[in-house]
Amino acid sequence: MVAGGDWGEFEDAILREFHQRKAPAIVVFNKSDLGRPAAGLGERLRKEKVSCVETVANRGEGVLALREALVRAAPEEFINAPSMISDLVPPGELAVLVVPIDKEAPKGRLIQPQVQAIRELLDGDSYCMVVKERELRDALERLKRPPVLVVTDSQAFLKVAGDTPPDVKITSFSILLARQKGDLAQFVQGALAIEGLKPGDRVLVAEACSHHPITDDIGRVKIPRWLRQYVGGALDIHTIQGHDFPDDLASYQLVVHCGACMWNRRELLTRMLRCRQAGVPICNYGMTIAYTLGIFDRALGPFPDALETYRRWKAERAKGSGPAS
Amino acid sequence: MVAGGDWGEFEDAILREFHQRKAPAIVVFNKSDLGRPAAGLGERLRKEKVSCVETVANRGEGVLALREALVRAAPEEFINAPSMISDLVPPGELAVLVVPIDKEAPKGRLIQPQVQAIRELLDGDSYCMVVKERELRDALERLKRPPVLVVTDSQAFLKVAGDTPPDVKITSFSILLARQKGDLAQFVQGALAIEGLKPGDRVLVAEACSHHPITDDIGRVKIPRWLRQYVGGALDIHTIQGHDFPDDLASYQLVVHCGACMWNRRELLTRMLRCRQAGVPICNYGMTIAYTLGIFDRALGPFPDALETYRRWKAERAKGSGPAS
To answer: Nearest C-alpha of chain B: how many angstroms from A115?
Structure first.
């Protein structure tokens, strides 16, 4: 928002950053009663496909035009978000959602990806069973026909893989989020990087929310433990929370990111882009867990393209050429 | 909170109101560096079992003592809330939750009572199926053993009653909330008052949240329509939203209240008390719907005490004596 039509190098830099991130931009000239934008500016911005709106905020002038510009500029995904689960479960079919209740589960609630999955299934005319990992076997036994998909919290992956018949597909909420909000192929490549980790390597564990970690926290305790066990030695693990992302990304051998359930797609993709620029592989919680527990193939079962990519890269790596970037 | 130890008739009146509502009270003497409470006051308050804390808020003094007093004064239900559903579904058993997706359902979400029910079932080592009313019949067909309970949004009561085998108990989220947050017996009495409504009677529809009503709103369109159909004529229906409750309660023949899912038990019980004081029957949305649709007996099936009360009052009413107050 530019007051009184001032425009300079600073504004140009912001706009370039927006273009680079492919973020839609609206330029709002506020206090337009005190000064209008320079003659050629509006024309130049329109050529760059940037919407311009003039407002006088303290009188409410132009606010409706601004709202309309916001709706027009909103990316398609705001209107029709890519689906998280409904394309994997046909109408009239059943999914089973495995929801462990650990110490960090807020009282009386379900976490956002669980609610989102239930709602998407209902919106898609399918339905679901919601069950803890301990009751999963009984719940599956109770069905005349098996579900088309079992989705679990990553923390219960091993037990769920054991209790679900091999012909039933399983995946995790975290992998569903990776597909919906991130770039599944880049995460697959990130998981492969776990294979190359050596004791002493630097790993950044990044969490979107700044929750208060308690005993057995997934990002601080469980994932570091599984990674160490897989690598067979100590790792130099750093943990961050919230919106800051370090500048020395290139100094890490791997970034492990949470599902970013409370973020929008753009925010996570921006981080993935920064990792690609820094040449550091990034993986998410669920895929890291599936990889270190040795059930990566099964967890990618519902996503044949990603599974194919993984198998190809794995074969290339085995031949010593490493995954393509 | 009383600054500098001032205490007068105003404070006494507030305290009396608290005692009358059986609300625990803590008296905080703030600015206690500028003035302490009068000599006899502390002693008098302690005799009334009122906790007293002295603080200097701008220096943070006494804040820890205040927090401790809050925890001590918190009612038992804050620590161990009465259960909404888990006592009706034994460990290892299955409940089916019917969740219609209407135009007012916020995108990507489930409403609070639905989430609360799912979570309580998981906490109680049971599990659930979540399904729209349209897929309910298929979902039940898919089971080898029927569920022990079907809970529906009140709006789908008739269809759910039709699609659920007669030996399976059904109720609504609204009735579960009535039991957990209100007084089921008083609501049963309120439902009976629907029987005595005459065309032209005044009905107050009260909603806790101030959401933006749209087409076919339950409180503004559906319940008034069902009530009119049951009574067989026009009613004088008033609608209120939020925390204000009218002073002329006695001028209504019936109050119909929403489930108050976003309120605590005290707030709803306070309203029920005010209705009792004004001599006006109060019923909630789900029980009103069940009553006007003629499935009240079945909806009370899971609650034998309430069902017995209802049948007794109904029998008394049939003999012309009306329900006991």
So the answer is: 6
Cβ of A55: how many Cβ atoms within 10 Å? 20
* Residue A130 with chain B: CB contacts under 8 Å: 118, 121-122, 127-130
Any residues with CB less than 8 A from the CB of A266 and at least 6 apart, and which?
Answer: A21, A23, A75
Q: How far apart are CA B266 and CA B18, in angstroms?
A: 12
Q: Encoding tokens for residue A110?
A: 């379900």
Contact predicate B13/B37, CB 8 Å: no
- Which of A120, A142, A180 should one mutate to test binding to chain B, selecting the residue with the greatest count of B CBs within 10 A? A142
Which pLDDT does position B147 carry in this prediction? 98
Task: List phi, psi (to 5°) of B228.
Answer: -60, -45
Helix, strand or coil for residue A226? helix
**What single string gives the DSSP state of each residue in A233-299?**
S--EEEEEESS---S-GGG-SEEEE---TTS-HHHHHHHHHHHHHHT--EEEHHHHHHHHTT-HHHH
- The residue among B184, B179, B191, B143 whose CA lies nearest residue B164 is B143
Are the beta carbons of B143 and A138 separated by less than 8 Å? no
Task: Collect all residues from A whose CB is shorter than 8 A from any CB in B.
Answer: 81, 92, 94, 99, 101, 108-110, 115-116, 118-123, 125-132, 134-135, 138-139, 141-145
Contacts of A181 (CB under 8 A, 6+ apart): A259, A260, A263, A264, A265, A268, A269
Selected residue with higher pLDDT from A284 and A321: A284
**Record: contact B127-A139, CB cut-off 8 A:** yes
Report the chain B residue with the minimal C-alpha distance to residue A103. Answer: B123
Distance CA B172, CA B169 (A): 11
Are A70 and A79 in contact by the 8 Å Cβ rule? The answer is no
B219 residue type, one letter? G
ipTM reported for the complex, 2 dp: 0.73
Q: Is the pLDDT of residue B64 over 90?
A: no
The answer to whether the beta carbons of residues A284 and A255 sit under 8 Å apart is: no
Q: Are B255 and B248 in contact (CB under 8 A)?
A: no
User: The tokens of A209 are what?
Assistant: 């929310």
**Nearest C-alpha of chain A: how many angstroms from B128?**
5
- Which are the contacts of A14, defined by CB distance < 8 A and separation ≥ 6? none
Residue B243 vs residues A113, B267, B271: alpha-carbon distances, Å: 32, 9, 10
Q: Tokens for B285, please give them.
A: 């949305």
DSSP helix/strand/coil, A55? coil
- Binary contact (A131, B122; C-beta < 8 A): yes
Spatial separation of the C-alpha atoms in residues B151 and B286, rounded to whole Å: 11
Token readout for A60 is: 């409410």
Which of the pair, B70 or B120, is modelled with greater confidence? B120
Amino acid present at B197 = L
Which pairs from A305-310 meet CB under 8 Å and 24+ separation?
A306/A179, A306/A184, A306/A185, A306/A188, A309/A185, A309/A188, A310/A188, A310/A191, A310/A192
Cβ atoms of B149 and B170 within 8 Å: the answer is: yes
- pLDDT, tens digit (0-9, with 9 covering 90-100), for A240-255: 988 889 999 999 999 9
A41-45, A221-225, B28-32, B117-121: which is most confident: B117-121
- Residues from chain A that touch B141, judged by Cβ atoms under 8 A, are 144
* Partner-chain contact B126 A116, CB within 8 Å: no
Q: Are the Cβ atoms of A108 and B130 closer than 8 angstroms?
A: no
Hey, are the CB atoms on A130 and B130 less than 8 Å from each other? yes
Which residues of chain B have a CB within 8 Å of the CB of A109? 115-116, 119
Tell me which residue of B135, B57, B110, B71 sits closest to B261, measured CA to CA. Answer: B110
